Amino acid sequence: MSVKKFKFVSPGVFVKEIDNSQLPQVNRDAGPVVIGRLPQGPAMEPVKINSFSDFVDIFGNPVPGKATGDVWRDGNYQGPTYTSYAAQAYLRNSVDAITVVRLAGMANEDASGDTGAAGWGTADLDTSVLANGGAYGLFLCNPSASGDTAPTKNGYLAAIWYIPTGSAIALSGTLAGTTTPDIGGIGVLINPSADVGASSGPDYTAYIKNPDDDVVYRTTFNFDPGSKTFIRNVFNTNPQAAGPIIPDSSFARGENFYWLGESYESFIQKKLDTGELATNSYGLILPFDNNTKSHYRTDASRASTGWYFSQDVSTVTGSYTAGQMQKLFKVHALEPGKWVQDNLKVAIQDLTYSRDTTGTHPYGSFTVVLRKANDTDSSPQIVERFSNCDLNPLSDNYVSKKIGDKYRVWDQEETILREYGEYDNASKYVRVEVDDTVRNGIADPVLVPFGVYGPDKIIDVTIASGSVGSSFAAVLETGSEGPEDKPNGDGDNINTGSLGDYIANLIFPESQLRVSSSAGALTDQTNAYFGLNASAYLENTTFYSSDKPGTGYPDYVYPLGAIATAQRTPQWIFSLDDLVKPLDKNYVYWLSGSRAGGTSYSATGSWKNIIDDGWVRFNSPLAGGFDGLDILEVEPFRNAGMTSATLSTNYALNTLREGVSIVSDPEAVACNIITVPGITNDTITNHVLQVCEDRADALGIIDIDNVYTPFTETSTAYSDRTARAATSVKQAIIDLENRQINTSYACTYYPWVQIQDTVTSNNRLWVPPSVVALGTMASSEAQSEVWFAPAGFNRGGLSQGSAGIPVLNVSQRLTSKDRDKLYDANINPIASFPNEGIVIFGQKTLQATPSALDRINVRRMLIYVKKQISIFANGILFDQNLEVTWDRFKAVAVPFLASVQTRLGLSDFKLILDSTTTTPDLVDRNIVYAKIYLKPAKAIEYIALDFIITNQGADFAD
Question: I need a labelling partner for 799 at 20 to 30 A (CA). Which of 436, 528, 698, 954 fits?
Answer without folding.
Answer: 698
